[in-house]
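seq:
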Amino acid sequence: MRDTYKQYGAGKFTLVGINQGDPKDDIALFGKQFGLTYPLLFDKGDSVNTTYGVTAIPTTYFIDSNGIVRSVFVEQLTPKTMRQGLASIGISMP
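struct:
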């Protein structure tokens, strides 16, 4: 995801990492260690997971510009599933 976001994300899609289980400081450190350039948010009180019905980690939602969930992957993303998810919101990748 990191590399795809660096290459294709600017102006085409927004990627946001959401964590509910780790302390905030650990989340920031994780982002620095892995060179993540997208925002990492802390879901205090598990409200995001509850709202979206997350039952397993990792879960990735592809939400279009109208706020409609177009695809969901309850697995580690692969290049193939990343392309499928982006295609579901109108973004094509080679």
